[in-house]
Write a structure and sequence with these properties.
The chain has five helices and 14 strands. With 275 residues, it is of the alpha+beta class. The longest helix is centred in the C-terminal third of the chain and has 21 residues. The chain is globular, with a radius of gyration of 19 Å. It binds zinc ion. The site of zinc ion has 6 residues, from loops.
Length: 275
């Protein structure tokens, strides 16, 4: 059973799924034989060297009744939506290239899902594990996701320059308030277009800048796993989040993460390591 519940106290949504992995897990395990390389199940779509398939234990499903019910002041509804895997075909998925084609396929898939008027919020995440198959998980949910407009902040950062790693077609910079050390954001350098109004060349530029920023962060953190998170907005962005530690008691008490790496110091460190 799948359900999307909204907490009447905090306003946060949660997805419940009694078929889900006991521990939080990104999806099928990667060790040989690689699940993605060996995949021969149903296919949702194919793009340039990229395949889109249903998640084997989807957090959301396309069938069901979208109407919410209220119990004890809390909202519960069937988890209507989509949860898909988008991955590079075959051994190319392990080659560390083709990120542009992959991100373009994610964008195309989200554009297609948008046609279903029940679906209101869209996001995607990629767990970046050394040697692992390159795969994005795409989510579409029946509720609006908070939108942000980082364009003004990006322009101020570009003028200031302290946290910038790269600034060409795409701007890569250290997050202002990083949730984890070395959190970085990659955005189009100009304009405030959301993902739906971004052309393939700019998507490729952002993908290239993500690749370069990821390479620097991985060297700095000795190949720690990373999450890449696609966040729509004005403009859209890809967030790079190293997975370093669990939530602390401080975070449980205040809702705010705590760590010791200032983004200005992280930017200096990463720039020094540029080859
Ligand atoms: Zn593989």
């Amino acid at each position: 059973m799948r359900e999307l519940r909204t907490c009447p106290v905090t306003g946060r949504g949660v997805l419940l799924n009694d078929g889900w992995f006991d521990a939080p897990a990104p999806g099928p395990a990667d060790p040989a034989p690689c699940w993605h390389c060996a995949y021969d199940g149903p296919v949702i779509a194919r793009y340039d060297g990229v395949t889109v398939v249903p998640h084997p234990v989807p957090a959301l499903g396309i069938e069901g009744d979208p109407r919410p019910t209220v119990v004890s002041g809390g909202v519960r509804r069937q988890a209507i939506g989509a949860h898909e895997l988008v991955f590079l075909d075959g051994a190319r998925g392990h080659a560390g290239e083709g990120e542009g084609a992959l991100l373009a396929a994610v964008a195309a898939r989200i554009a297609d899902l948008r046609k279903d008027t029940r679906l209101r919020g869209f996001g995607a995440v990629r767990r970046y594990t050394p040697g692992g198959h390159a795969v994005w998980q795409v989510f579409a949910v029946p509720v609006e996701l908070p939108t942000t407009a980082p364009g003004g902040w990006r322009d101020a950062e570009r003028a200031h320059g302290e946290r910038i790693l790269e600034d060409a077609g795409a701007t890569a910079l250290l997050a202002w308030a990083p949730r984890v050390p070395f959190e970085a954001w990659v955005l189009p350098t100009l304009g405030i277009a959301p993902l739906a109004r971004t052309g393939p060349e700019l998507i490729a530029a952002v993908a290239g800048a993500v690749d370069r920023a990821v390479a620097r962060i991985r060297v700095a953190l000795r190949d720690a796993p990373l999450d890449l998170v696609l966040v729509d907005g004005e403009p859209w962005r890809v967030e790079i989040l190293p997975r370093l530690a669990g939530a602390s008691p401080v975070e449980a008490a205040t809702g705010m993460p705590i760590h010791g790496v200032f983004p200005e110091a992280a930017a200096e460190f990463l720039r020094d390591r540029r080859a």
